[in-house]
Design a protein that fits this description.
Radius of gyration: 22 Å
Number of domains: 3
Order of helices and strands: EHEEHEHHHHHEHHHHEH
Number of strands: 6
C-alpha cells in the first residue's frame, strides 16, 4: 500500500463544469480569477513554484507492466481521474485481450476514454488526442488531477505534439494498403512510404505498420508528404505540463507475464469474441481486429494458421510490441524511469515519494514571503 493520502488543495471549480456534458469543450478557468495566481498543489506548480498551467501525470510503459494498477494507486492518493491511452481499450466489444480494468476493480476511480468507440470505426491518434485534451480540461475544472495511463505511444505523442488537421480515412485506400501488407508484409509498406515521404520513413520502424500506413494514406489523399504538413499543426491546447512516469520491468519477467497473459486470453474465450465481432460485421482488417491479440485469431478463423500457431505467434507479436514500446519511450524527453512493475508496492512507494517530495518543496516555496523591493 502507498503512504497516507496527501491533503492537497486545488483551485476553485467553476459551477457549470460540474454539470457539463462529457463532450463539451471547456476552456481552463481563467487564472486572473484566482487572486494570487498560485496553486498550493506542488504537482501542479510551474517554474520557480508559481503555477503557469495545471499539470498532468502520465503513467506509461510496455504492455503487462502494471500501469493500470499504479495509475489507480496514484489516483486514490492524488485526487485523480484516469484517462485511457490504449488504442484497443477505446473500442466497445473488444474486451478479452485488452486488459481493461473491470469497473469493480477500479476502486471508485473515474476512468475515461474506455469503451466509447464502436469497433467498426477506425479511430485515429489525432481523434484520441482531441478527446483526451477535452477530458483533461474537464478534470482540471473539477479540481482534480488527470492521470494518463497506457502504452500507445502514437496516441501520447499526438497529445504532446498535436498534429495538423489530417484528412478523414479513405476506406478504399486503407483496404488496398491492408491487402498489400497481408500479401507482401509491413516492410513493403515501409518501402512505399520511402518513395512518397523519405523523411517520415526514416522516423518510423519498418514493422510499425499502423503509422507507416497512415503516413502513406495522408500522402496519397493530400498529394503532399505528411512530414511537410506537420508544421501546419495546431498550437497545443493549454492542458498543462505533462510529467511522465515510465515503467521498465526486467525483460525476462515481463516476457513471462506476456506469455502467461496471452495464454489466459485464449482460455477466456478470445476466439469466440472475435468470431462474434466478425459475425456482427466488423471488418477483419479494421483497426480493432488488427490489434495485437486479435490479428492472429482472425487468421486462424480464416484458416490461415492453426490455433496453436496463432497462440505462439500472438505471444511473439506482443513481446515484440513491448520491446518497441520501450524503444519509443527512450526517445521521449523528460521521462522518469522506474525499473519494476507498477503492481510492485516498492515501485508504488518510490513513485509516490517522488511526487510527494515535489509537493512539499513547491508548497514551501509558495508559502515563503515574497522579497521586498526597497527604493
Amino acid at each position: 500500500m502507498l503512504p497516507q493520502r496527501l491533503s492537497i488543495s486545488l483551485y476553485p471549480v467553476r459551477s457549470d463544469a460540474l454539470f457539463a456534458k462529457p463532450n463539451n469543450r471547456l476552456t481552463p478557468f481563467p487564472y486572473s480569477a484566482l487572486g494570487n495566481n498560485r496553486f498550493p498543489h506542488g504537482i501542479l506548480a510551474g517554474v520557480n513554484g508559481y503555477a503557469r498551467q495545471p499539470t498532468v501525470i502520465a503513467v506509461l510503459g510496455p504492455t503487462a507492466s502494471g500501469k493500470s494498477v499504479l495509475g489507480i494507486e496514484l489516483a486514490l492518493r492524488l485526487n485523480g481521474e484516469i484517462i485511457n491511452c490504449d488504442s484497443v481499450q477505446v473500442y466497445q466489444g473488444i474486451n478479452v485481450a485488452t486488459a481493461k480494468v473491470p469497473p469493480a476493480e477500479r476502486r471508485g476511480v473515474p476512468h475515461h476514454l474506455i469503451d466509447f468507440v464502436p469497433p467498426e470505426v477506425n479511430f485515429s491518434a489525432g481523434e484520441w488526442a482531441r478527446e483526451a485534451a477535452n477530458k483533461i480540461r474537464e478534470i482540471h475544472m473539477r479540481g482534480r488531477l488527470p492521470i494518463i495511463v497506457g502504452g500507445t505511444g502514437f496516441y501520447f505523442r499526438a497529445l504532446r505534439q498535436p498534429f495538423f488537421p489530417s484528412p478523414q480515412t479513405d476506406l478504399n485506400i486503407r483496404h488496398r494498403l491492408n491487402q498489400i501488407r497481408q500479401l507482401r508484409g509491413p516492410e513493403h509498406l515501409h518501402r512505399i512510404l520511402t518513395r512518397l515521404d523519405a523523411v517520415s520513413a526514416q522516423q518510423l520502424f519498418p514493422r510499425d505498420w499502423p503509422r507507416v500506413q497512415r503516413a502513406i494514406e495522408v500522402s496519397m489523399q493530400t498529394g503532399k508528404p505528411i512530414s511537410a504538413q506537420k508544421h501546419l499543426g495546431l498550437v497545443a491546447s493549454s492542458i498543462g505540463q505533462i510529467r511522465v512516469i515510465a515503467l521498465n520491468p526486467p525483460r525476462s519477467a515481463l516476457y513471462h507475464r506476456i506469455n502467461a497473459r496471452t495464454q489466459e486470453h485464449f482460455s477466456a474465450g478470445l476466439v469466440e469474441e472475435v468470431r462474434q465481432l466478425l459475425a456482427l460485421g466488423v471488418a477483419p482488417d479494421s483497426n480493432a481486429l488488427g490489434a495485437h491479440g486479435y490479428r492472429r485469431v482472425v487468421e486462424y478463423l480464416q484458416s490461415k494458421r492453426d490455433l496453436a500457431a496463432a497462440i505462439e505467434q500472438t505471444k511473439l507479436d506482443v513481446r515484440h510490441y513491448a520491446k518497441r514500446q520501450l524503444t519509443w519511450l527512450r526517445r521521449e524527453a523528460d521521462v522518469e524511469w522506474y525499473a519494476g512493475f507498477g503492481d510492485d508496492a516498492n515501485i508504488q512507494r518510490r513513485v509516490f515519494k517522488a511526487l510527494n517530495t515535489e509537493v512539499s518543496q513547491k508548497q514551501h516555496k509558495l508559502s515563503s514571503p515574497s522579497p521586498r523591493i526597497s527604493g
